[in-house]
Design a protein that fits this description.
single chain; mainly alpha; elongated
Amino acid sequence: MQASLHSPFRLAVIYGVLISLVSIALTMVFYMTQWSSDLWTGYISNGVLFVGILIFVNHVNKAMGGKASLTSLFTMGLLAAAIAIIIVASATIIFHLATEPPAGTTGNLPSDGGRMSEYSTYKREGFWIFLLGNIFVTNAVLGGLAAVIGAVTVKRNQKTTDAR
């Protein structure tokens, strides 16, 4: 049996990859402009995930002819969020390892105008906490919240619990 173009699983993969590519592109732009250490840049990347999942849930409901259940919409939203989180986390780890300077060559570089240097030992040691806290936990919470809000908004007058 051939999968249709608008299969919910296929849409989850497409939206998960698109959301992660936009987040990675924004991260690269922030890194190149040396704004990556500012807090507001993380809010923008988290907002991309949140809005992307909301749009995705709406698209899945339309692709299923408006007959998707609240549970299936929520599950598809979580799936797309998980795909995006895994890709962004993988790219972040690869980027961190690729830009890590050789051991003992940086020392503790001074900060530049109130910003901590990317190669500072303090910044490099805090990477794994950042990865766990911001990439996994915050994005998982926002992805789940967006999936719930999107599913409830799309199916606010639901009369059945299953898709027909």
